[in-house]
Amino acid sequence: MINDTAEYGEYKTGKRTVGLVNSGASFGIKVGTGIGLASIGWLLSFGGYLGTVAEQSSLAIQTIIFIGIYLPIIISILMFICLLFFTLDKHYKKYVDEIQRRKEDAANRA
């Protein structure tokens, strides 16, 4: 999907920026991973989790269950909703054909 967006960018602007798109995606993945992992710690801290005690409080156990079950379900639903708006694949062939036509026109002019 990342490289598909690079094709779309070329279709819209006429400039091929695959490296920029991939480096931006890589940066976003790293930032998202960092925030995601930090949020687990924040949620556990909010829930009163203490790693040194033999038995966790009821709120800490509920927080662990939320992180392990309900949070992934919520995130999956949000991702699914976001993917409903990703319609690039429906128009992808048209975009690639147009890019190819532009390249052929430029080659014929040269």
Task: Explain what you see.
The protein has 110 residues and is mostly helical. It has one domain (2-92). Helices cover 82% and strands 0% of the residues. The protein has 4 helices and no strands. It has helices at 2-13, 18-46, 58-84, 88-109. The protein is elongated and about 75 Å long. The two termini are 33 Å apart. The model has no long low-confidence stretch (mean pLDDT 94).
SS-based class: mainly alpha
Number of individual domains: 1
What's the helical proportion of residues? over 70%
Mean pLDDT: 94
Tell me what portion of residues adopts beta-strand conformation: under 5%
What is the general shape? elongated
Total of DSSP H or I helical runs spanning 4+ residues = 4
Secondary-structure element order, N to C: HHHH
Oligomer: single chain
Distance between the termini: 33 Å
Q: How would you characterize the largest beta sheet?
A: none
Integer-rounded radius of gyration? 22 Å
> Using DSSP, what is the number of strands?
0
Low-confidence stretches: none
